[in-house]
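User: Structure please.
Assistant: Input sequence and predicted structure:
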Amino acid sequence: MPEKPCFKCLGFIRDKDLDDEGRRYGEAGGNPQVVWSNGVLASTAVGIFIQLLAPWCPISPGSAFLGYDGDRFTLEHDARFAVGVNHNCEHFGSIGDLGDPFWKP
């Protein structure tokens, strides 16, 4: 979320991880995607986006750092976010640098 800690701030994504993933890109081989879990995550992302543009309930999305447990069928705020919740992200500009999210003329 703008002006919130990003995945790099929280240590969830590191440059080494991105480099490793880039080298393996396209080599899924025997590791197929799991359609139903991707559907849950994609639908959740759409809900967070809609809440940002047109709040449909009084709850602010806050952090979008969520963890999905496909074995228990739960989607929860990841505990790692609590560590950096008051941290200002240094990897991206302020919300004013991001442009107008509502595309007003």
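The longest strand covers residues 66-69.
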